[in-house]
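Re: that backbone. Tokens:
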């Protein structure tokens, strides 16, 4: 028999009068092995387990038991009701499918529609000579255009396969009836010819100036590098144009160099333009990381020439890509890593030029550059020096450069870079959270003490989008906006 709430249970044996105290779960055995058979022992253990379960239930409050029972009953009723509606919905959907899809349409009709949809999607695949023109037309980045182009290609393949399977042997396909496809091919050929003529005309092929030339230079020699990785040896390409181009910050060009290798005639590569000018440029500077294909072949040619600059004939298309307006922000924080400096430099040049000409609201620009070694910073030093030299209007000095190096010989935790008091090299990784907090507060901007000024907006220009997104999200109410550049690391 059980007593109370169940911390102690007293069991009385009716036959021989022996009793055993069970305290808690089970501290003593009910009967000894000498007095019990194996079957009796099993039954005794099962009885003990049942008593323990009853003890656990008895410890629960009556309100908890009622809540569990009521909640379970309610859940069962809801599930039963949902299943009844689901069965009814299934029958309605099946009737609609049969009425509007299954019976009115045949396999031949489905095959024809698949072929039509395949042709419609194929327009996006061959609408222009290069994907960069499509990206400019749609106003999207080249990365997103490539993703859409890839998705359209998979869709065309799936629809074409469906069309071939459903139409196989069902309808005649006379080879002589090629009127409509022939007209389509002729139109495509005329369009391709016009685009090619326009492309060659812009490159000055039909003039006495000739086509553009690309001067390739390796900025870091093998003996001076702190790393043996070829991807850390930057290449500079100066493209001498046949016709001047006006390139906005963040834009890129497609470069075609047929004589670099036997396969380079079939390749064109997009490169971000590092140079910027408020007027048209007759020469464009490119800062390139050697990786594979064309860039690897360029580095190999320069290394064979023992660091001598080499010139190659080239063709250029562009400029392509979008450019964001930055003059309406009071503070601009530009963050990049390694070769991501290429799209940042033009924006910095434009910001300094706008400040010198009083055409923007920008009062502070902070460039944070995260590097693995100092080799890349040394290669880019001429561009950085040019930025600091331009930032001299009334000794305003709106530009500050912070370079963080993970590996390399650095004296102390901080040292000046290039003899400037506004550019410093730090050891380790940048604390982006602390840097953004400081820039968002506006404490680095010199303000008039007797005038109450309203704090302006802050722009975070990022090449490290994945790292900065979570940080910037916490400062959205402080008028902080993030701009993702066209070039992003893989």
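Recovered sequence:
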């Amino acid at each position: 028999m059980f007593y109370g709430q169940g911390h102690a249970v007293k069991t009385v044996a009716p036959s021989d009068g022996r009793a055993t105290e069970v305290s808690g779960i089970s501290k003593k055995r009910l009967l000894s092995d000498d007095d019990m058979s194996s079957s009796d022992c099993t039954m005794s253990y099962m009885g003990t387990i049942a008593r323990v379960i009853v003890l656990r239930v008895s410890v629960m409050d009556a309100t908890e038991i009622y809540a569990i029972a009521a909640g379970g009953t309610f859940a069962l009723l809801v599930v039963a009701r949902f299943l009844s509606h689901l069965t009814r919905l299934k029958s309605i959907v099946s009737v609609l499918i049969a009425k509007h899809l299954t019976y009115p349409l045949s396999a031949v009709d489905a095959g024809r529609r698949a072929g039509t949809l395949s042709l419609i999607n194929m327009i996006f695949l061959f609408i222009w000579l290069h994907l960069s023109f499509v990206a400019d037309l749609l106003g999207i980045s080249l990365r997103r255009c490539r993703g859409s182009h890839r998705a359209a290609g998979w869709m065309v393949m799936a629809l074409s396969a469906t069309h071939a399977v459903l139409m196989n042997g069902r309808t005649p396909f006379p080879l002589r009836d090629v009127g409509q496809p022939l007209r389509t091919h002729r139109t495509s050929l005329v369009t391709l010819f016009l685009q090619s003529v326009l492309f060659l005309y812009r490159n000055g092929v039909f003039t006495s100036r000739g086509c553009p030339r690309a001067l390739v230079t390796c900025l870091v020699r093998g003996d001076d590098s702190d790393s043996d990785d070829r991807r850390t040896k930057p290449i500079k390409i100066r493209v001498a144009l046949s016709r001047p181009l006006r390139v906005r910050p963040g834009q890129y060009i497609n470069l075609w160099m047929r004589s670099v290798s036997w396969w380079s005639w079939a390749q064109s590569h997009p490169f971000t333009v590092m140079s910027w000018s408020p007027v048209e440029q007759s020469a464009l500077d490119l800062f390139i990381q050697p990786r594979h294909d064309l860039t690897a072949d360029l580095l190999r040619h320069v290394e064979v020439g023992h660091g001598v600059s080499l010139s190659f004939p080239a063709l250029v298309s562009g400029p392509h890509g979008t450019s964001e307006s930055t003059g309406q922000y009071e503070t601009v924080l530009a963050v990049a890593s390694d070769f991501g400096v290429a799209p940042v430099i033009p924006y910095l040049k434009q910001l300094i030029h706008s400040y010198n000409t009083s055409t923007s609201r920008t009062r502070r620009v902070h460039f944070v550059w995260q590097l693995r070694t100092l080799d890349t910073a040394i290669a880019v030093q001429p561009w950085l020096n040019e930025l600091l030299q331009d930032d001299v209007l009334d000794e305003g000095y709106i530009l500050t450069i912070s370079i963080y190096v993970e590996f390399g010989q650095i004296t102390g935790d901080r040292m000046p870079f290039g003899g400037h008091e506004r550019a410093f090299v730090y050891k380790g990784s940048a604390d982006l959270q602390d840097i953004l907090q400081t820039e968002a507060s506006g404490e680095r901007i010199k303000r008039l003490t007797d005038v109450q000024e309203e704090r302006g907006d802050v722009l975070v220009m990022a090449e490290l989008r994945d790292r900065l997104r979570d940080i910037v999200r916490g400062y959205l109410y402080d008028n902080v906006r993030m701009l993702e550049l066209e070039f992003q690391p893989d």
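Residues 62-102 form the longest helix (41 residues). The CA atoms of residues 463 and 489 lie 7 Å apart.
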